[in-house]
Amino acid sequence: MAAAASVVVLCALVVLAAAGGASAWPVMSPSYYEASCPSVYDIVRRVVQEARCTDPRAPASLLRLHFHDCFVNGCDGSLLLDDFGAMHSEKNAPPNKGSARGFDVVDGIKAALENACPGVVSCADILALAAEISVELSGGPSWNVMLGRRDGTAANFEGARDLPGPTDDLDLLRRKFSEFNLDDTDFVALQGAHTIGRAQCRFFHDRLYNISGTEQPDQTLDMAYLNELRQSCPASDPESTALRNLDPPTPDAFDNSFYGNLLRNRGLLQSDQGMLSAPGGAASTTAPIVVRFAGSQDDFFRSFATAMVKMGNISPLTGSMGEIRRNCRVVNRG
Ligand code: HEM
Ligand SMILES: *[C@@H]1O[C@H](CO)[C@@H](O)[C@H](O)[C@H]1NC(C)=O
C-alpha cells in the first residue's frame, strides 16, 4: 500500500520534472529537423544554388526576405502570404511593393521540401536557411541556423509599412533595430548585407537632386559617384526603377567593401552613408563600427553572423503556436 502510493508520488514527480524541464530545453535548435527532415539543409542549398545560376541577384533577394519577415510580426513567414479575402499582403506595403523579390525561389524550396518531408518544414525556417546559404554561397560567413519556427496565420500590412526606410534618419533607424534588442554593432553589421544586391533609383533619387527638399544633392555623396549615378537616374524620373549595385566594387560578393565605400562617401542609400556621416554627431556610436568593419573583414563576418542569429530569433512561433504551411503563400485550411 505504502509502496504503491510512493510509486504514484514518484511518477508524479517525474512527470512534473519532465514538464518543468521541457520549458528549459531549447524550443529552437540547429538540429530541429534531424529526425523529421534530415536533408533539409541540402535541399534548400540545391534550390538556392540553382536560382543563383540563372539570377546572380537571387541570394541578395532571399537574404532581404528574411529581414523583412523578421521585422514584421517576428520571423513567422508572414511576408510570404498573398492577398486573401480581408487579409492584406505585406508584399503590397511600400517597402516591399515592386521591390521584395525571390518569392518564386521560396516556392521552389517549399515544393522540394514538401516532396521530401511533407508538412514538416515551416516557411519561416525556409527563409532563415535560405538567408544563411545565400550569404555563404556569396563568399560570406556561415553560422548555425536556429530552426523550429512555425508559420503565422496572418499578414501585417501596417507593420510592413513601418519597415526601416532609406530616408529614415539614423536615430529612427537605430530605434527600429533596438526595439528588437539589436544593438549598434548588430545594426551596422546587418546593413552590411548591402554588400550584395541592387537598389532602384527611386530609393536614392532625392540624394542626387533634392535632398530633404533643398533642391541640392546630398553633400555626403562623392562628386564623381554622384555624376555617375545621375546618368542612370535622370532628374525627370523620381520613380525610376532602374537598378544600381549596392556595392559597385564587388556587386555579388559578400565581403567588407561596402564599409570601405562609406569611408569614401560612396554609400548608395542615405541610410547606408548615415551610419558614418549623419549630421549633428548622430553617428558618434555607429561611425567607429563602420571604420572597424572596413578594416577587418573577420570582425564584420563574426558580427554579421551573431546579428543574423539574433535577428532570426525575433518572436518566433514555437511549440503548438501557428502552423506548418503547406504552401507559403496561403494559410492552411481544413
Ligand atoms: C537600415 C535598414 C535598412 C534599410 C533602410 C534598407 C533599405 C533597402 C533598400 C531601399 C533596398 C533597395 C530595394 C530596391 O531597390 O528594390 C535594399 C536592398 C537590400 N537590402 Fe536592405 N535595408 C536595410 C537593412 C537591411 C538588412 C538588415 C538586410 C539583411 C540582413 C538587408 C538586405 C538587403 C539586400 C540583400 C538588398 C538587395 C536585394 C536585392 O537585390 O533584391 N537590408 N535595402
Ligand atoms: C524638392 O523636394 C521638395 C520637398 O520634398 C518639393 O516640394 C519640391 O518640389 C522638390 N523640388 C523639385 C525640383 O523636384
UniProtKB/TrEMBL annotation:
Residues 1-24 form the signal peptide. Its EC number is 1.11.1.7. Substrate binds at P164. The active site is at H68 (proton acceptor). GO terms for molecular function: heme binding; lactoperoxidase activity; metal ion binding. Disulfide bonds join C37-C117, C70-C75, C123-C328, C201-C233. It comes from the Eukaryota. Transmembrane segments: none annotated. InterPro entries: Haem_peroxidase, Haem_peroxidase_sf, Peroxidase_pln, Secretory_peroxidase. It catalyses: 2 a phenolic donor + H2O2 = 2 a phenolic radical donor + 2 H2O. PROSITE patterns: PEROXIDASE_4 (PS50873). Binds 2 calcium ions per subunit. Binds 1 heme b (iron(II)-protoporphyrin IX) group per subunit. Ca(2+) 2 binds at T195, D247, T250, D255. Keywords: Calcium, Disulfide bond, Glycoprotein, Heme, Hydrogen peroxide, Iron, Metal-binding, Oxidoreductase, Peroxidase, Pyrrolidone carboxylic acid, Secreted, Signal. Heme b binds at H194. It is found in: Secreted. GO terms for biological process: hydrogen peroxide catabolic process; response to oxidative stress. One of its GO terms (cellular component) is extracellular region. It is an enzyme of class 1 (oxidoreductase). The record marks R64 as: Transition state stabilizer. Residues 27-332 form the Plant heme peroxidase family profile domain. Removal of H(2)O(2), oxidation of toxic reductants, biosynthesis and degradation of lignin, suberization, auxin catabolism, response to environmental stresses such as wounding, pathogen attack and oxidative stress. PANTHER family: PEROXIDASE, PEROXIDASE 72-RELATED. Belongs to the peroxidase family. Classical plant (class III) peroxidase subfamily. This is Peroxidase.
